[in-house]
Amino acid sequence: QVQLQQWGAGLLKPSETLSLTCAVYGGSFSGYYWSWIRQPPGKGLEWIGEINHSGSTNYNPSLKSRVTISVDTSKNQFSLKLSSVTAADTAVYYCARGKRYCSGGSCPRTYYFDYWGQGTLVTVSS
Amino acid sequence: DIQMTQSPSSLSASVGDRVTITCRASQGISNYLAWFQQKPGKAPKSLIYAASSLQSGVPSKFSGSGSGTDFTLTISSLQPEDFATYYCQQYNSYPVTFGQGTRLEIK
């Protein structure tokens, strides 16, 4: 059974850097893309970015200038850093496994999310 | 970015009812659409991928259909544990985007 367990600081001041880590237990680490997704309180879901076991990344253009996602394959972990946070970055942050499902010889460009971490509430406040 | 629009935004139904939620993409996404269920304070749970394929362990009361720009999620015989918020997600192209959610409430 695949489990994602995440952790990181929950209270930040404006201009600080958000840092979260997600550990993957069970299943293969390679062969998937590993994503960060966030959800502001009472709002919908926003994809932040992803990384694979080789360190190849894709980021949401809306956050790209402030986001760094890294991977540690020796520990089956991946991490998120978001710089220069403001109150608008207050959200529950989730890590998730991205899976590519191909059928009939056709594959999507990206991934759907089949396993999620438990979420971490990050609050930005002075 | 591909915009995903769900309707309705909220829905009231009774135990035993059958309900349908719609998701529309701003451009064609083939069948690269997933559905999630989220309960308060919990992470989203995968229900359906490839528009109509049931995620392992998800009961067959959940079904999905559609292709191109228009998709539906149908839940038959609603039970108390089905009252939650449902999201669609397109994974046809970057960036991945989600619908705004449909809140399913008990009538």
Describe what you observe in this structure:
The complex is a heterodimer of chains A (126) and B (107). Chain A has 126 residues and is mainly β. Chain A contains no helices and eleven strands. Helices cover 0% and strands 51% of the residues of chain A. In chain A, a hairpin with a 6-residue loop joins strand 4 and strand 5. The radius of gyration of chain A is 14 Å and the shape is globular. By secondary structure, chain B is mostly beta strands. In chain B, the strands form two sheets. In chain B, strands 2, 4, 5, 6, 9, 10 and 11 form a seven-stranded mixed beta sheet that branches. A four-stranded antiparallel beta sheet of chain B has the order 1-3-8-7, with no helix packed on it. In chain B, strand 4 and strand 5 form a beta hairpin. The model of chain B has no long low-confidence stretch (mean pLDDT 97). At the A-B interface, strand 10 of A face strand 5 and strand 10 of B.
Quick structural gist:
The complex is a heterodimer of chains A (126) and B (107). By secondary structure, chain A is an all-beta fold.
Order of helices and strands of chain B: EEEEEEEEEEE
Give start-end ranges of low-pLDDT stretches of chain B.
none
Structural class of chain A: mainly beta
Number of helices of chain A: 0
Biggest sheet descriptor of chain A: 7 strands, mixed
Topology:
The complex is a heterodimer of chains A (126) and B (107).
Chain A: E1 3-8, E2 11-12, E3 18-25, E4 33-39, E5 46-52, E6 57-59, E7 67-72, E8 77-82, E9 91-99, E10 112-116, E11 120-124
Parallel strand pairs in A: 2-11
Antiparallel strand pairs in A: 1-3, 3-8, 4-5, 4-9, 5-6, 7-8, 9-10, 9-11
Chain B: E1 4-7, E2 10-13, E3 19-25, E4 33-38, E5 45-49, E6 53-54, E7 62-67, E8 70-75, E9 85-90, E10 97-98, E11 102-106
Parallel strand pairs in B: 2-11
Antiparallel strand pairs in B: 1-3, 3-8, 4-5, 4-9, 5-6, 7-8, 9-10, 9-11
